[in-house]
Amino acid sequence: MPEPTVIVTFDVTEPHLQYCLDSLARQRDGGGDTAPDPVPGFEVVLVPVRAAAGADSRTGPSEASSDDHSADHSGDDDGAEEGEAAERAEDSDHGDETVEDTREDALAVAAAFAAAPPSGLAVVLADTDPAPDRPSARVRGAAAASGTHLLFLDGGDALTGYAVSYLVDSAADTRSDLVVGNVHRFSELGAHPSSFHRKLCGKHRMAEDPRAIPALASDSALGNKLWLREFWNSLTDHGLAPEDADLGLRRAALAAAAVDVLPAPVLLKRQRESDPVPLGREALTRRLRAMGVLAASLSTADRRLWDRPLLQGELRRLLLRLDDADEEVRELVLDLLNAYLDHVSPRLLRGLGVLDRLLYHLVRKRRVDDLLEVATFAKSVEIKKANVVRRGLGYYIRYPFFDATDPAKAVPREVYRLDDELRVRQKTEDVHWKDGRLHISGRVGIRHLRARKRWQQHVVAFAVNTSTRRRVRLPVHTRLAAEYRLPDLVDAARHDYGGFTVILDPRRLRSGGRWEPGDWKVELVVVNRGLARRRIIGNPVAGPPERPGYQQVDEDLWIRPRWNRDRHLVVGVEPSRARITEHRYDARTGELELEGELVSAPAARATELRLTRRPGTAVLHYPLTVHGGRISARVRAADLLDRSVSECGGVVRQEVWDARLVTPDQESVAPVLPDTVHGGTYAAEGSHRELAVQRTPTGHLALRAGHARPVVDQAVWEGRRLVLSGDFTAEAELRLVVRAQGRDEEHRLEVERSGSRFTAEFAPADVPTLSGELSLAAGGYQLWGRVLDSDGAGSTDVGVEFAEDLIAHLPLALQTSERTYTLSYKGHGLPILRVGTDLHPAERGAFAQRELRETFYPAQRLEPVVDGVLFDTYTGRQYSDSPQSIYAELRGRERWADYPMSWLVADGQVRPPADLSPVRHRGREYYEALARSRYLVTNSRQPVWFDRRPDQVVVQTWHGSMLKRIGFDIENIRGKSRDYFDMLAWETRQWDYLVSPSPWATPILRSAFRFEGEILETGYPRNDIFFSPDTEAVAERTRRRLGLPEGKKVVLYAPTWRDDKYYTRGKHKLDLHLDLQRMYEKLGDDHVLLVRRHPRVVDSVPIVGKDFVHDVSLYPEIMELFLVTDVLITDYSSMMFDFANTGRPMLFFTYDLESYRDNLRGFYFDFEETAPGPLLTRSDDVIGALQDIDRVAEEHQGTYRAFVDQFCPLDDGHAAERVVDRVFGKD
């Protein structure tokens, strides 16, 4: 049996080492037939590292953001290019947890752990003299290790509780040189699967040639790998610098004779903030030469495996960053890259995606300026809008310089040719049985080649036996369906002939009239305009298609369709060899008793019941009694319950066990749980856990052991309210929440309990918020249970399940006048509430919007302008800011009291007053309002297609106060198209008036927007509230609305958004660096913390402590929040200019000042000198300043007063009045 040694390399200042070591102490053996024990023969070697001043002890390339839009969207999708690129993008998502000092406490933590090791661990502190870097530390650790296998772990990371046994067991079974496990990434904001490793580890591989796993050469993670020590010691030392050690580790994977890849996560990798490889001569020269050194000794085949991920990953990202480099560095990059490309196979270069081919063609031609243009194109939305054209028999994509007429700009047409990019996309939307046949429906087509006419696309279907490769042609019907990305509705904006239905008659699968057990897949052959592509039917949409059901076709013979790990449909022809007929729980012994009957061999020879915890991380064995055609087994509930896995807040959760009956020669049979035998749930006495007997979607037996889960067995819409009823076995307080998928947002349901029964209600169309009752935003929401601990101090989130009988009646939909709400499920029965968009079917999708933009809007411009004012704040995301103040001023004037007015509303997330007609953003009335409204008052950018008519008036109030550079003054426009400045110039010409907040800001606005119209130097109308006679009444109303306690100081934290931290365009992440828990501990007694997200940020705020943190992001008007705020914490937000009118203290949490100022936006003035409060870089500094706020305020009195004098001289309560007088006229 392998003997593992875990080598922990840690920086002496590592603040999270104890968490890492605790994860080693929790390691347990997942197998056996008794309670889990510590992994035997487990050695830990601790090696400290002390990096040189200013250096990061973690080696390897900086983990810079590599945004999705920089990828070649026409490229192939084998995932090779997504290796460390995706990892680095994820590392930039949240940043590191706050480290409050640089004390070398980690040495003491390590020494204490070595002096008193946990039971079962042999711990050695290798050297108290720290190594200078991590590669040196790994060498020391390997020399001190005595195990047969080595696992290297960073002191800031951690292992899952089963990781060591899981990796070791695989190594014992296969004797592979290297075992690789999956990875989750985590921070104080939560955990999530690594997108790259989810693909790399999606399939369980045993003793595989690493050349069959191309993505392996892109995996720069280390703590997810178990190395055979003999293999590790045999690796060649290439003399790399410590900064490039990651390249050596990736290169080492290709040297393995055999590799195992395991699907379950073993490494919990901490997300840390870091920077890209510096764009400096020394760093770039060293890095690219290291790549060449490592490639030089590879065979031709291995060289291709090595080059491809570099060309599609790190080297591509380097080229896309050239706009940040000076001319000297750009020339150096061309020199180094051309030297590398001299040894790259031309065939490999031709096989890259179009964007990569274009980039490297320009590199070879040394066309630096054109490279910069392509980089801008690749990082903008332009790349997604590029058109495909046909030339002769080939298809090409219009990237920069395609068909250029200028010889200096010409690029060979073949560079743009689409080959593998013209791949099939397919989704399965319905799988059901009808008259004994399996009907499989969905949509299919070749990317870029929409089948507008029936003759353009022909589809043929085959059932293919996965073992014998026998092929059976199946009937397939094509039909008119909505375009691929839209719901398949009759009134969708556009349709094509991409719909299909395959009909599989199981009798066709017989051979010579006999049934043969086996698995079949369904292959589609799609022929479109002479191109033929193949695709296995897969990609089921969430809900009923994921549970296709099974059918009996002969005595004890069943057809059992299922979805495999690749999400392919597998149709199993399976005889029933054993059935479970009864189950019961003996509370006295704590055992689950299973009884059943044998049907056919080899079940009759079975001697044990084997239970395997999904996805294979633990195995248990129980004796099986076979007598007279009957079987029975007893399973100790504690064995399963003690091995349930719930880590990272439940993100890593393993509770389901698959059952097999196993013979002495290791043949196995999956017992069936017939439909006539109901599942059951048995509560574990004295705990919040349970053991459940379940039926899988294919009808087989499975057991679930772990946290008690609510099971919903009844669901109904009562009016606009969703009513759910069900069972919950635990005697604990239960709460239910719906949690948004893809962003951090949740809402509680109303729950009533009666014994084990519960009833919950929720009105998704009328959710109470600080902005009034609003609909949930469009998207998916999963239902979760929150089980409170017995002491009330904490809680555990558990998944809610639907009962089988209820699943048969889903989905259930509520149709309101605004949108559709659909209760459905995903996977094997996890409840999902899907909230539709407020756009009508004919308004959805790129084609529909283009039609509205290019046909409907121009037609509306031919109609007369009508009286009306359209107000817009942040493109419909708020009812607030200067437009709201101007609206209030207008309504207060007699002539405008009844004048038609409307407010732009995005996705129903704003509730304007009754006298304002809501205008749906991107809805038909939006285009009409922009074409025909006499007045437009906005604080936001307008679409480039908006063309003001002569009798329309546009008032741009703007929303910022000119700390950050804007408009034409931003030197490096990130993520914008190449014609960004042309579009900006067009847009500003549509404005009649531009509101300025101060004389200081006026010349900046004039030049930054190159605005030639009239600037209204009035002050911002939004600041009138500070001088209103109703100020105190508004403040008191705001306190009551927020439920703020009396006598506590109110702190408002309102950071701006980060250009480089986002989910998708326009949806940014909450880049939270304040340690909320520490703030609560230090300030919770006499402070409350209000947190306000920027309108672009979609995440919710973590709620910490009792009545301490309040998420006020949905409060409609931030100026009202300022009235109740005692101290403002912000960073670079323009609200500092507004809040200065209160005279109250401001703190500036500027943890990324240098990066934000120098790389992202740039400033108009010396912020460090001018700021009306201290600039703080650490969370503890912010806490300390709040604790001594009077002294801090006094120290900054002078700069505060100067700040107000310079930036706020026009704020007097009459700005809205001045704007209205000039634009709309005096009454």
Automatic annotation (TrEMBL):
Superkingdom, taxonomy of origin: Bacteria
Name of this protein: CDP-glycerol glycerophosphotransferase
Keyword Transferase appears in the UniProt entry: yes
Q: Where is the composition biased (Basic and acidic residues)?
A: 66-76, 85-101
The record describes its membrane topology as: Peripheral membrane protein
- A Gene Ontology term for the protein's cellular component: plasma membrane
Q: Answer whether the UniProt record assigns the keyword Kinase to this protein.
A: no
Pfam families noted in UniProt: Glyphos_transf
Q: InterPro entries from the entry?
A: Glycerophosphate_synth, Nucleotide-diphossugar_trans, TagF_C, TagF_N, Teichoic_Acid_Biosynth
Q: Which Enzyme Commission number(s) are on file for it?
A: 2.7.8.12
Enzymatic class: transferase
What are the leading ranks of the lineage?
Bacteria, Bacillati, Actinomycetota, Actinomycetes, Streptosporangiales
Q: Which GO terms describe its molecular function?
A: CDP-glycerol glycerophosphotransferase activity
Q: Which family does it belong to?
A: Belongs to the CDP-glycerol glycerophosphotransferase family.
Q: Which GO terms describe its biological process?
A: teichoic acid biosynthetic process
Region (Disordered) residue ranges read 53-101
